[in-house]
């Protein structure tokens, strides 16, 4: 066990990313209100938990005050766990200036009687701390000569280091001589890590704050001749490596705290007497320190890890997030800690929205080892429903912050004000990020089942999905029983926080029908909803349709509800209700602003909708005829838009591989459908074959194709296709790499982020991670480019294919 590996301060992991801002006043995580330095606060808190310090009264520590020799004696005795021996030493006179009336007589006498091994020794000699030869030279503390101790004099750094070096088991024989008596002690202490983070001179006086850091270092420094640190070998504590600190939740009513940690994929909650914990430690990996009784003391961050704390502020996809204008790659299989449970980025990425605090932990190799999502407590203390209509000036959720007034307020993922709050909103408090998150996520349907019972359900089933019920929602659900219609109020991560009669509030959950027959349908919500297992919800049930209607329902946008168990009521949505034009630059639709966290989807024909971003919308405006659906939020702003083929990015582009249909006139069962696929860098031999009825498609044509949600005999149909137009003789200099625009004739075309580039001479596709990189390779190969585009720039057209020779 390597106990010397200590970062300079418990918050150093956050400092590595250069993102830490310390608050003015008391340091985060301290029980003492007058310590502003976070490292000192953490050291003092550990010593408080071990009974070494208790402050100076009234929650004060006085970190800048000097420490007397007598006070240091008491700390040394207590850190050795020998305080119970102190009363027996009060009636002895060892030093002339530590008389019967001195408050620290017992501690000074005991400290001078203990040896470096921790045992009591003969006190016949009372030499000095300054290395003078004496039979008791291996004692912990000595006098200053002439039978005195100078108990009330401020202790020097050299004296303090000498004493704690002896506590670690070093004797006079281990200390080399130097120009001053303390040089040898400082040298040994520097080598073993005892003085890490402290650069004082030996004759400098020691403050109470510096003493706290010195004693904290002692706990995690190896004892002489051992590979175990003082906390483990002498005090019976434990260190557990590779532990991730997930949460420290405080019960506002009882004042008790609960810490949650993870080791591997297992979580546990050791006991703790801590009342506060630095938020900069949340999500950090390191060594968990516990005392001899198993109480959690602290987490010591791994010095080889690099921790980044970012806030999502842009596009999120299945393999990246955007923060501060930077696109940060996260592989789908990357482990994620969310709500105290292990999951993967693939399962949670769509939950992330603007304003989500995210912690990224990179290991020694620079690989992203895991992601920690700061989230609200699971306890009912951290969740609240606005039962009455807010007045627009007072935050009804302010009590969640426990008296803090410097919290941030977010609603549906964007910064908000109290004027944005509405009746039946649900709020959760993230103590780590100091954010109150508010959501108006609701779902109306049939209350199908309760577990373990309807009187006190911990889970309930609606529309075939099981959701977690928070304790605060149990009273709301009491009037309802399975079979009733009910509106559920959700937290932002899919937990039921309340329930209402549908006459008070209803949902308008919008989804797309992925599969549909007369007796079975699957509907995927546009905005992800998570069930009790943390899985994205897909609603299933009997739509009660005839076969002809069911066939037409596949791929349609619908609102979802349920009147009977196992049934789904689907109401089709269309673009008829949308009027006006979307102005992309001003981000308004019919002069109504779009929400800051507007989510936009695009589909081609009856293909599956895919989320898009503003940088994909290269056209200046979108007419209402191309908007299939537009939904508004609580403030009357548009927060969901569904477009009909406006970017061209939902097609798979390449060179066509067309297979004509075949039919044997002598055998009606001997036939095959005409099919189409494309060849490109991802599918050099051709991708998934799509059934097509079009006779206009020919092999080797440059095309784009989109797959329908509909199937025929288990094979997907073609939803739409587009023939690409070409322009040859385009020079490499016509490209602006900063704007990614290419001049073709008199027009400027954006180059698609997914452009495919083909070398006709070698017969190979250029390989790179992005279309821009592939395009640069093609430009480097030849100055003569043939480019293929789908539409005019005004209609959102882009360069989709490039061929060089």
TrEMBL record:
<feature type="domain" description="SLH">
    <location>
        <begin position="91"/>
        <end position="178"/>
    </location>
</feature>
<feature type="domain" description="SLH">
    <location>
        <begin position="27"/>
        <end position="90"/>
    </location>
</feature>
<feature type="signal peptide">
    <location>
        <begin position="1"/>
        <end position="26"/>
    </location>
</feature>
<dbReference type="InterPro" id="IPR001119">
    <property type="entry name" value="SLH_dom"/>
</dbReference>
<protein>
    <submittedName>
        <fullName>S-layer homology domain-containing protein</fullName>
    </submittedName>
</protein>
<keyword id="KW-0677">Repeat</keyword>
<dbReference type="Pfam" id="PF00395">
    <property type="entry name" value="SLH"/>
</dbReference>
<keyword id="KW-0732">Signal</keyword>
């Amino acid at each position: 066990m390597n106990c010397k590996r200590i970062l300079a301060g418990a918050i150093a992991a956050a400092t590595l990313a250069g993102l830490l801002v310390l608050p003015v006043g008391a340091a985060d995580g301290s029980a003492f209100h007058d310590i502003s330095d976070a490292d000192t606060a953490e050291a003092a808190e550990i010593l408080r938990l071990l009974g070494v310090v208790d402050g100076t009264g009234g929650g004060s520590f006085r970190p800048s005050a000097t420490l007397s020799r007598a006070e240091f004696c008491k700390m040394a005795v207590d850190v050795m766990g020998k305080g119970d021996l102190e009363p027996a030493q009060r009636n002895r006179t060892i030093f002339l200036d530590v008389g019967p009336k001195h408050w620290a007589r017992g501690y000074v006498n005991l400290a001078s009687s203990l040896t470096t091994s921790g045992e009591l020794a003969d006190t016949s000699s009372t030499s000095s701390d300054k290395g003078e030869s004496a039979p008791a030279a291996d004692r912990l503390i000595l006098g200053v000569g002439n039978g005195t101790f100078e108990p009330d004099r401020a202790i020097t750094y050299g004296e303090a280091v000498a004493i704690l070096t002896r506590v670690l088991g070093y004797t006079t024989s281990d200390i080399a001589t130097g120009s001053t008596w303390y040089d040898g002690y400082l040298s040994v202490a520097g080598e073993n890590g005892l003085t890490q983070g402290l650069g004082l001179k030996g004759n400098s006086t020691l403050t109470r704050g510096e003493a706290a850091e010195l004693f904290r270092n002692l706990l995690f420094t190896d004892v002489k001749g051992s590979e175990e640190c003082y906390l483990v070998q002498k005090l019976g504590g434990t260190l557990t490596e590779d532990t991730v600190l997930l949460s420290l939740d405080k019960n506002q009513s009882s004042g008790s705290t609960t810490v949650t940690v993870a080791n591997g994929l297992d979580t546990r909650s050791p006991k703790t007497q801590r009342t506060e914990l630095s938020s900069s430690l949340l999500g950090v990996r390191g060594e968990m320190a516990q005392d001899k009784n198993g109480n959690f003391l602290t987490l010591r961050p791994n010095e080889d890890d690099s921790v980044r704390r970012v806030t999502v502020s842009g596009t999120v996809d299945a393999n990246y997030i955007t923060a501060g204008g930077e696109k940060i790659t996260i592989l789908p299989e990357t482990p994620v800690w969310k709500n105290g449970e292990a999951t993967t980025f693939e399962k949670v990425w769509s939950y992330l929205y603007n304003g989500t605090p995210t912690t990224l932990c990179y290991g020694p190799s620079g690989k992203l080892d895991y992601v920690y999502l700061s989230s609200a407590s699971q306890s009912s203390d951290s969740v609240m429903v606005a039962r009455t209509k807010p007045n627009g000036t007072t935050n009804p959720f302010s009590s969640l912050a426990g008296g803090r007034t410097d919290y941030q307020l977010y609603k549906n993922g964007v910064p908000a004000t109290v004027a944005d709050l509405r009746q039946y909103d649900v709020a959760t408090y993230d103590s780590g990020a100091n954010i109150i998150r508010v959501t108006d996520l609701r779902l109306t349907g049939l209350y199908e089942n309760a577990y373990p019972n309807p009187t006190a359900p911990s889970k309930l089933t609606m529309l075939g999905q099981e959701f977690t019920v928070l304790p605060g929602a149990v009273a709301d659900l009491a009037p309802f029983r399975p079979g009733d219609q009910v509106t559920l109020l959700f937290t932002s991560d899919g937990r039921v926080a309340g329930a209402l009669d549908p006459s008070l509030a209803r949902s308008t959950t919008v989804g797309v029908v992925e599969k549909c027959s007369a007796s079975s349908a699957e509907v995927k919500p546009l905005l992800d909803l998570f069930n009790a297992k943390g899985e994205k919800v897909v609603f299933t049930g009997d739509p009660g349709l005839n076969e002809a209607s069911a066939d037409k329902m596949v791929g349609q946008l619908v609102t979802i509800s349920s009147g009977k168990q196992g049934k789904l009521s689907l109401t089709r949505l269309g673009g008829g209700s949308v009027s006006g034009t979307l102005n992309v630059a001003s981000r308004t639709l019919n002069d109504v602003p779009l929400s800051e966290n507007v989510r936009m989807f695009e589909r081609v024909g009856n293909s599956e909708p895919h989320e898009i971003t503003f940088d994909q919308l290269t056209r200046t405006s979108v007419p209402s005829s191309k908007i299939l659906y537009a939904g508004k939020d609580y403030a009357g702003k548009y927060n969901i838009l569904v477009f009909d083929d406006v970017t061209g990015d939902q097609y798979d582009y390449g060179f066509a591989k067309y297979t004509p249909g075949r039919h044997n006139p002598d055998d009606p069962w001997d036939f095959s459908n005409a099919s189409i696929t494309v060849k490109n860098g991802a599918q050099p031999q051709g991708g998934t074959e799509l059934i097509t009825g079009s006779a206009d498609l020919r092999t080797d044509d440059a095309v784009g194709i989109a797959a329908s949600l509909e199937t025929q005999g288990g094979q997907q149909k073609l939803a739409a296709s587009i023939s690409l137009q070409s322009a040859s003789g385009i020079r490499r200099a016509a490209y602006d790499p900063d704007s990614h625009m290419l001049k073709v004739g008199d027009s400027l075309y954006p180059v698609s982020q997914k452009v495919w580039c083909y070398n006709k001479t070698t017969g190979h596709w250029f390989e790179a991670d992005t279309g821009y990189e592939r395009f640069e390779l093609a430009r480097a190969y030849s100055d003569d480019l043939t480019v293929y585009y789908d539409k005019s720039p005004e209609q959102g057209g882009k360069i989709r294919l490039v061929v060089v020779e």
